[in-house]
């Protein structure tokens, strides 16, 4: 049982929590995998949740038992990202996941700090495309960290921006690696998605539709 806390800050993972971007990651990785003649399914794509771009590529290469040099890997990542950026340039507010915007607006009204903590290096462009960027007090993404989740660096930097300690913040995460990062940083980890995949989280909800500060207080209380 987690000791009851006063929620002063909320740190949101982006992909799979704030926006429905996994499908765009999948389309882009799939094009690359096809070119490399590697079988890559939607199920395989789930394994990439929360992993950095390089770790994702390594995982795909391992599915095809392919070993490549660093230069080729960089070229492949650039190629994947160009496709991905094209796809996310078409994203709109309709790809914000259910309940997220209303929750963030309520948190802001109540004076709760709101920060992003994402492994993606594309967070700023995506948040701007879906018109959410201005609602965050801070954005920490893959450009600001040296260690990927499950290391807690991304969330610790978020808490620092909010001027809060981890014990005052909830982390919203859809990936097991992100839940692990939150827990090892001393945050309350709220898993978003399938409870069987996020069993180590302090609590799990299917999605954020209808989520309110009152409900968050009940969950953490
Ligand atoms: C994470 C996603 O948020 O960001 C991963 O869950 C993705 O699937 C990672 O690989 C890196 O994203 P990007 O946008 O920097 O390639
Ligand atoms: Mg995620």
Q: TL;DR?
A:
With 221 residues, the protein is α/β, with parallel strands linked by helices. Helices cover 43% and strands 11% of the residues.
How would you characterize the overall build of this protein?
- It contains 9 helices and 6 strands; from the N terminus they run βαααααβαβαβαββα.
- It is of the alpha/beta class.
- α8 links the parallel β4 and β5.
- α1 packs across α4.
- The chain is globular.
- The structure holds 6-O-phosphono-beta-D-glucopyranose (BG6) and magnesium ion (MG).
Which bin fits the share of residues in helices?
Answer: 40-55%
Tell me, rounded to a whole number, the average pLDDT: 96
Strand order of the largest sheet: 3-2-1-4-5-6
- Name the ligand types: 6-O-phosphono-beta-D-glucopyranose, magnesium ion
Order of helices and strands: EHHHHHEHEHEHEEH
Q: What are the segments in which pLDDT stays under 50 over at least 5 consecutive residues?
A: none
**Strand content of the residues, in percent?**
5-15%
Major beta-sheet overview: 6 strands, parallel
Number of helices: 9
Going by helix content, strand content and strand pairing, the class is alpha/beta
The geometry reads as globular
**Quick one: how many beta strands?**
6
> What separation lies between the terminal Cα atoms?
10 Å
Q: Any idea what the radius of gyration is?
A: 17 Å
Q: In terms of topology, how is this protein built?
A:
Blueprint lengths: L8 E4 L9 H14 L6 H5 L6 H11 L6 H19 L11 H10 L3 E5 L5 H7 L8 E3 L12 H10 L6 E5 L2 H10 L2 E5 L10 E3 L7 H8 L1
Parallel strand pairs: 1-2, 1-4, 2-3, 4-5, 5-6
């Amino acid at each position: 049982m987690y000791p009851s806390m006063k929620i002063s800050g909320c740190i949101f993972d982006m992909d799979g929590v704030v926006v429905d971007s996994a499908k765009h990651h999948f389309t882009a990785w799939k094009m690359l995998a096809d070119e490399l003649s590697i079988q890559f399914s939607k199920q395989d794509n789930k394994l990439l949740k929360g992993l950095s771009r390089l770790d994702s590529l390594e995982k795909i290469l391992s599915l095809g038992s392919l070993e490549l040099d660093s230069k080729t890997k960089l070229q492949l990542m650039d190629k994947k990202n160009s496709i991905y950026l094209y796809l996310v340039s078409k994203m709109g507010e309709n790809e914000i996941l259910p309940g997220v915007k209303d929750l963030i607006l309520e948190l802001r009204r109540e004076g709760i700090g709101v920060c992003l903590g994402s492994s993606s290096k594309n967070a700023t462009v995506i948040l701007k495309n879906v018109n959410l960027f201005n609602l965050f007090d801070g954005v920490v993404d893959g450009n600001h960290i040296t260690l990927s989740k499950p290391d807690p660096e991304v969330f610790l930097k978020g808490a620092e921006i909010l001027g809060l300690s981890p014990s005052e913040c909830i982390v919203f995460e859809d990936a097991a690696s992100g839940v692990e990062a939150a827990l090892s940083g001393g945050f309350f980890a709220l898993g978003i998605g399938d409870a069987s995949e996020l069993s180590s989280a302090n609590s799990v909800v299917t999605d954020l539709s209808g989520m309110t500060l009152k409900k968050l207080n009940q969950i953490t209380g």
